[in-house]
Design a protein that fits this description.
Elements: H1 3-14, H2 20-30, H3 35-41
Helix pairs in contact: 2-3
InterPro entries: P-loop_NTPase
Length: 44
């Protein structure tokens, strides 16, 4: 990851904001979606 991208992520994580992938996994655990849908929209 480039330096600029890391710099952008740091404040959001400190504020409790997660990534799209983390949010998707939370929704899988809640039964809202399945892991296949999460993998389809997230960068591997």
């Amino acid at each position: 990851m480039r330096r600029n991208a890391r710099w952008l992520l740091r404040p959001t994580r400190a504020d409790g904001m997660g990534t799209l992938k983390q949010d998707g996994i939370d929704k899988v655990l809640q039964g809202i979606t399945d892991i296949y849908q999460v993998r389809a929209v997230c960068i591997k």
